[in-house]
Amino acid sequence: MADDDHGRRAAAVFDALGLAYEKAFAHSEAHRASLEWLLGRLPPGGRVLDVGSGTGHPTASALAAAGHDVLGIDVSPVMVELAGRQVPGASFRRADIRDVPLQDGSFDAVCVYFTLLQMDRAEQSELVRRLARALRPSGSLVLATVPLDVEGVEGVFMGQRVRVTSFAPEDVVALVRDAGLTVLSEHRVMFAPAHPDAVPEPHLFLYCARAGA
Ligand SMILES: C[S@@+](CC[C@H](N)C(=O)[O-])C[C@H]1O[C@@H](n2cnc3c(N)ncnc32)[C@H](O)[C@@H]1O
Question: Which of 67, 78, 107, 154 is the most exposed place for a label (fewest CB within 10 A)?
């Protein structure tokens, strides 16, 4: 089992936020654009893993509506309950992704939208390596994060106490490449969550693929 401090803290933060998180981030055009990119690459009925699936919107809902077979994993029981109710066409499981065994080559696409930020750096690198291996050859991965060179920084996010770890943008790219993925394109934007206690934050979206067979 993974060190549980991260899992417990992440679950507590997102149990408390629930739908408020979805509302604050719903207007992200960069998130929507990355989903359009994925939709353009997936085969019919593609198998997709959504890591840290939150409320199911916008990721699982957009992919399931297009006929894909989506499995969302989230450590927060509240998020999993909301996602199951809001997106009945996808499957959701409450688990810490660090503890979920992943079969090599078993997904056509993997989504990682803002899920890494409460893990330490070694865990983030190890998880992206495992996710890369879980992709079939030529499969697609979208990784979105807040690219800041910070390690274990305590802060307040939408009124919740959080401890955040991330990497500078070039180091996120290096992490993904070291995991064996090709970065096909990247998109950097500043995003202002629609919440009185949130401040604008940098977002980095990496559009990636596993090498072909
Ligand atoms: C910032 S939210 C993003 C939700 C969704 N991906 C989105 O972009 O709308 C991060 C989500 O990842 C989940 N999470 C964080 N650490 C996790 C872990 N170790 N295993 C599974 N889920 C995790 C949180 O519970 C939360 O729902």
Answer: 154
Q: Return the SS3 of 209.
A: strand
Q: Is 210:132 a contact under the CB 8 Å cutoff?
A: yes
Encode pLDDT of 5-41 as tens digits.
888 999 999 999 999 999 999 999 999 999 999 999 9
Is 1 a residue whose pLDDT tops 60?
no
Query: Of the residues 1, 4, 14, 38, which should be mutated to test ligand 1's pocket, given the most ligand atoms within 8 Å of the CB?
Result: 14
- With CA atoms as reference, report the closest residue to 140 among 185, 199, 201: 185
Residue boundaries of the structural domains of the chain: 4-210
- Please state whether the predicted TM-score (pTM) of the whole model is above 0.85: yes
